[in-house]
Specification:
heterodimer, A: mainly beta, 2 helices, 40% strand, B: mainly alpha, 13 helices, 0% strand
Chain lengths: 141, 408
């Protein structure tokens, strides 16, 4: 009976799901490395993101981190000076890196995300990338 | 070459349009809303509101292509709801200006009515004054005086109500935190206050009310009515006085005028209290009991109890009839009929006398009553004794006469 309950529970799925946010959020990093978003009731420490990108956790205070979530629920993170866009999945009590997408050799100057029907759009000046969970879709434009 | 250049420009322009940040679009929309809201709030004329309406329409047109994005991003609001809210704010704010314009028209009418009433009140005050100073008043004069006082009282109330309406007409402009007003807004309010002659009207009203109290003798019910009117006026002044003081802070000569108004209010309050004591003294005086002047509960209690003490001391020095008459006039005609019934409740309600002071006077009256009664019973014993002596003398004389007759 116990096994049948386990099997029964694990077989229930709700789909389709659209986790997408209509708009990116632009969040300022505080002194402890936290960003906080009231609308989505989200508070994340992004200190490790800066260590991953720059190899150091210096100078992240007051930096703006831009976050957006696509329809499948993956979070896209980027910030000024980043060479990569970071994709995270939600886990219990944490977020785990699912992909790092290299987008600039010299670092992005003024990046932003837009939510599009089938992908996330990353724009930085004249550069534009269409991003999915797998990486860049097609060539950069 | 020119065509190539044009194509390049168009392609750059269209790329920029296409690559605009959704986040920036939403932020830009929110910023424009805030700007328009401030314009609506700070509008000082219907023209300003008309401009705000045009900006709302422009905002709507500019952002209509992003309606879907805005609807999703502005949850729980949406694009159309926000535009509607802005338009509603304009309509509500327009109401303030329409109200102001209506009030301004009304004020012109009120001013001419006030002028007429001011003139009438001055004439009435003069007539009452000349009748009051006549030493001897016949019934006809007293009746005329009472009518004039009644007429003046009604006219003062009517005039003051018009003055309140003029003060009320300032409220929509003045009922804000003065610190939030710009210098220009303050100047506008000063100009409006002066064009309506508000400070002069308030001063005139207070002076007339003070003069009315000075030249008339009032009954408790009149005093209560004046007190109610005074409380209403004071409360209205407390709403606008401090704000006008802030607004006029840059004009020292007008600040002085505002201080004068505060002083007139204080005078009016003091005059009303003085009028109460004067009217009580007049009630004693009309009954023929002339007391020294008093203007507080301590003096009043002392002067009344001193008077009774004097009467008690001199009870054996005056005739029985005179002692009885004074006691009867004081107690029956004045104290219990007018003072205790009419004035004491007012004095107690307005904390102008304490219960202890009232009891002190009552106790003294009881003491006086006992002494007058005792004095009366002694006279009765004396009279009965005298009658008995006369009877005994007559009986003895008759018996003596009988014995003389029998001896003869």
């Amino acid at each position: 009976m116990f096994i049948s309950i386990i099997i029964g529970c694990s077989s229930v799925k709700l789909s389709p799901v659209d986790f997408s946010w209509p708009l990116e959020v632009v969040l300022k990093v505080d002194e402890q490395g936290f960003i906080k978003e009231d609308r989505y009731s989200m508070k994340i420490n992004v200190r490790n993101l800066f260590i991953e990108e720059f190899g150091t956790d210096k100078d992240f205070t007051n930096k703006n981190v831009r976050v957006i979530r696509n329809s499948s629920g993956t979070y896209f993170f980027v910030s000024e000076g980043f060479k990569n866009v970071y994709l995270f999945n939600q886990q219990l009590d944490e977020m785990s890196l699912s992909k790092r997408i290299s987008v600039s050799e010299s670092g992005l100057k003024n990046p932003f995300f837009n939510q599009r029907d089938s992908h996330i759009e990353l724009v930085d000046g004249d550069l534009k990338f269409n991003l999915s969970n797998e990486g860049i879709i097609g060539d950069k434009k | 070459m020119k065509i190539k250049y044009l194509i390049l420009l168009i392609s750059i322009f269209s790329f920029n349009l296409y690559c605009q940040s959704d986040y920036e679009i939403v932020q830009s929309f929110k910023n424009r809303i805030s700007e328009i809201e401030i314009k609506i709030k700070d509008a000082i004329s219907l023209e300003d509101l008309q401009n705000a309406s045009e900006e709302i329409e422009k905002l709507r047109k500019d952002f209509l292509p992003h309606k879907e994005l805005l609807d999703r991003s502005l949850y729980p609001e949406n694009f159309q709801k926000i535009i509607d809210n802005l338009n509603n704010s304009v309509v509500i704010r327009k109401g303030d200006f329409v109200q102001i314009e209506e009030l301004q028209t009304e004020v012109v009418t009120l001013r001419s009515e006030i002028d007429a009433l001011n003139k009438k009140n001055s004439e009435l005050l003069n007539q009452i004054y000349s009748l009051e100073i006549q030493r001897e008043k016949d019934e006809k004069t007293i009746a005329k005086l009472q009518n004039l006082v009644r007429e003046l009282r009604a006219s003062l109330i009517q005039r003051d109500e018009l003055v309140y309406s003029i003060i009320d007409s300032l409220m929509p402009r003045i009922d804000v935190d003065p610190k939030s007003l710009t210098d220009m807004e303050k100047q506008d309010i000063i100009a409006e206050t002066e064009s309506k002659n508000v400070l002069f009207l308030i001063k005139k009203s207070l002076r007339d009310n003070n003069r009315f109290l000075e030249i008339t003798t009032l009954k408790p019910e009149d005093i209560e009515e004046v007190k109610r009117q005074q409380d209403g006026f004071v409360s209205l002044w407390q709403k606008i006085g401090p704000k006008l003081t802030d607004i006029y802070s840059a004009k020292p000569e007008k600040s002085n005028e505002l201080r004068q108004i505060d002083a007139l209010f204080t005078n009016w309050k003091n005059n009303l209290r003085r009028e109460v004591w004067e009217s009580i003294r007049d009630d004693f005086s009309i009954g023929g009991i002339n007391l020294r002047r008093f203007n507080n509960s301590g003096d009043f209690t002392k002067i009344v109890t001193d008077f009774i003490d004097e009467e008690i001391k001199s009870i054996n020095l005056k005739s029985k009839e005179e002692a009885e008459r004074v006691f009867s006039v004081f107690t029956d005609s004045i104290w219990y009929k007018k003072i205790n019934n009419q004035w004491i409740p007012y004095l107690l309600d307005n904390k102008m006398i304490t219960v202890e002071q009232k009891n002190q006077i009552d106790q003294k009256i009881t003491e006086w009553k006992d002494i007058v009664a005792t004095s009366m019973s002694i006279w009765i014993y004396v009279a009965v004794g005298a009658v008995l002596i006369v009877i005994i003398v007559l009986v003895m004389m008759k018996m003596k006469k009988k014995s003389n007759d029998s001896e003869a």
